[in-house]
């Protein structure tokens, strides 16, 4: 069941969304050569606590992993697609790209967002990968309009990615969001004819999150049971925003 939010609920989601945006902006500035992904984790944890919020990811149980996640961030470097775990051993170096994904629970409602940043001077392909991934997100957000269908979002993302020679990860998808971190519907980054294609209505809130590989779309999960990586070792980028469907068009809740 897709849960539509009232205007008052959207305002609460806006507050949680802006908190996530503020955290990610600071982490993006922190992500420099010599910094560890655990350094980012510690800073994010403190910012969430200082805001009186609860981390959305820490303690989240995933059956496939058989355990709850232990961190407030997912920090995925280079060929890591999603769910990379912060570590004091993972030192960022020039040429890396790192996806930083986090969420919060504030006043009963969730916010969830992600960005990918380059460390120092990165390759032209890595820059293009990040740019195309971010552009595909913007095109998907633009389709979050009452009267459109879910596949309008999915298709917009997929067409832009594939037309630029990159590939969309299929195992991991976006989602509805509200009083739960993951609500209906699932939001693939490609048109999945086996998936439902609901009409978009006012009050729906979707977390749209393209995960794009420079090489082939195939992925695998490491022995840690969490970190998803590209099978061919190519770089992967990830951007995410939460967007509300309103009478005035798409309202991106996770940025000013």
Contiguous helical run count? 4
Order of strands in the sheet with the most strands?
Answer: 10-9-11-16-17
The CATH topology assignment is Creatine Amidinohydrolase
Classify the oligomer: single chain
- Name the CATH class: Alpha Beta
Largest sheet: 5 strands, antiparallel
Helical percent range? 25-40%
How many β-strand runs? 17
The structure class reads: alpha+beta
Unreliable stretches (pLDDT < 50, length at least 5) are none
Rg is 17 Å
Short description:
By secondary structure, this protein is α+β, with helices and mostly antiparallel strands. The protein contains four helices and 17 strands. 28% of the residues lie in helices and 27% in strands.
Descriptors:
single chain; Creatine Amidinohydrolase; 4-stranded antiparallel sheet; 28% helix; globular
Describe this structure in words.
The chain has 256 residues and is α+β, with helices and mostly antiparallel strands. The protein has one domain: Alpha-Beta Complex (Creatine Amidinohydrolase). The protein is 28% helix and 27% strand. It contains four helices and 17 strands. The strands form five sheets. The chain has a five-stranded antiparallel sheet with strand order 10-9-11-16-17. Helix 3 runs antiparallel to helix 4. The chain is globular and about 45 Å long. The chain starts with 6 loop residues before the first helix and ends with a strand.
Indicate the topology.
Layout: H1 7-30, H2 37-50, E1 54-55, E2 61-62, E3 67-68, E4 73-77, E5 80-82, E6 97-106, E7 109-118, H3 124-142, H4 150-163, E8 167-168, E9 174-176, E10 183-187, E11 205-208, E12 211-213, E13 219-221, E14 228-230, E15 236-238, E16 241-246, E17 249-252
């Amino acid at each position: 069941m897709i849960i539509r939010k009232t205007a008052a609920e959207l305002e609460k989601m806006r507050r949680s969304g802006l908190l996530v945006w503020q955290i990610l902006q600071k982490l993006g500035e922190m992500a420099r050569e010599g910094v560890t992904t655990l350094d980012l984790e510690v800073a994010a944890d403190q910012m969430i606590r200082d805001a009186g919020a609860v981390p959305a990811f820490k303690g989240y149980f995933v059956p496939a992993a058989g355990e709850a996640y232990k961190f407030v961030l997912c920090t995925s470097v280079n060929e890591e697609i999603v769910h990379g775990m912060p570590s004091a051993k993972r030192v960022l170096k020039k040429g890396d790209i790192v996806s930083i994904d986090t969420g919060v629970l504030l006043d009963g409602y969730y916010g969830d967002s992600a960005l990918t940043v380059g460390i120092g001077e990165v390759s032209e392909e890595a820059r293009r990968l990040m740019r195309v991934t971010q552009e595909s997100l913007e095109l998907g957000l633009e389709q979050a309009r009452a009267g459109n269908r879910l596949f309008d979002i999915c298709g917009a993302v997929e067409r832009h990615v594939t037309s630029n020679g990159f590939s969309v990860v299929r195992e991991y998808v976006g989602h509805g969001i509200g009083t739960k971190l993951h609500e209906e519907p699932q939001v693939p980054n490609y048109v999945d004819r086996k998936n439902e294609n609901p009409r978009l209505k006012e009050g729906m809130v979707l977390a749209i999150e393209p995960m794009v590989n420079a090489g082939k779309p195939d992925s695998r999960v490491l022995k840690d049971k969490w970190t998803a990586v590209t099978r061919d070792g190519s770089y992967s980028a990830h951007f995410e925003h939460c967007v509300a469907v309103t009478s005035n068009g798409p309202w991106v809740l996770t940025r000013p």
